[in-house]
Amino acid sequence: MIKWQKQGEAVVGPVVLGDGQPATVVLVGTRQNPKGAAIVLTPEDNGPLKTTPLNDALGRLDPAQVIDIVCVQERIFGNSGLPPAELP
Amino acid sequence: MTEPRDIDALLDEVVTLPSLPSTVAHITELVNDPDCSLTAVGRAISVDPAIALKTLRLVNSAYYGLRNKVSSVEQAVVLLGLKVIKNLVFTATVFDTLKSGVDAFLRHSVSCGMAMRVLAENGNAPGLDEDASEEGFAVGLLHDVGKIIFEQFVPEDFEKVRERAVRSHVPWHEAEQEIIGVDHAAMGARLAANWKLPGNIVAAIAGHHDLAKCADPELKGLAAALSAADYICTAAGAGSHDGAAPVVAPDVWPMSRIVSENVPSLLDKYFRTQSAVEELIQIAT
Ligand SMILES: [Fe+2]
Ligand SMILES: [Fe+2]
Asked: The pTM is what?
């Protein structure tokens, strides 16, 4: 499971994408907000950061990673009554 | 501490499997008889007031989402049909077994049942009978029942398993194999077989942490779905024991036909069941 932590108002966690590229998941809002979850690709050789909305990056994640991400997003920002996530 | 041993030794010396409550055994028998009447089943439920009451509370819960209030067991049988009623009575009695564990355990069991129901309705739980969502719920509800047996019959070893799983991050079932000699999947499957539950339920429980332990290759997809449901409800905050992170084998996803692109919509369906989960927990306790 992804190791999440708070960073200001956001919640972030490291992942490795299916093609081996390291990235960071950034959660800032609800599931209904298309920008509520994004994947920030860690640039190779100091290139610019590239951010992709989660929905456009699903195919690069495995189902367990998507489950982790969407559940934590819902537990932190959603209102479906799931137990809130406790973060360090 | 008891020495690690195999399941037969454990069953011979330490563990006595709880028997299936006689009401359920009787109702299952009735339902399996093609000549059985709805009235006979209604009567069989009504003779056990505790079961009858729980059955009525379940029928009227958000889980079934019926528009009008059902006030008698006979009416419930007519409305829902025999197979649904059989599963419902089963659920009502299994609650009594499950609530002997910690609160988190009951929540985990009900949540896993609900996740299985969602997977079944979505076509991700191959190998269920025609009442897939009902049977899916039953298998999810029961999947970790082996833990209750360990907690009851080998409590010191169970405590050591908890410590090992939580402190050393060893998967729970592996800690059980090390310390007790048998894991809860094998013990739960043995209980399900003893209760004469359908073979697909027994096989799925046996394989929910290791698909190779699923006796029938045709049913690996169902065991995979159960493993996925276990993972979903844990990620959604309803893990069975604090600190124990589930491990899912990579072949679980293709075997249950779950692809990343469909996960968000699947989870939205699961999230919408949360009020029904809370209600079921209330009914169980
Ligand atoms: Fe389990
Ligand atoms: Fe479980």
From this structure: 0.89
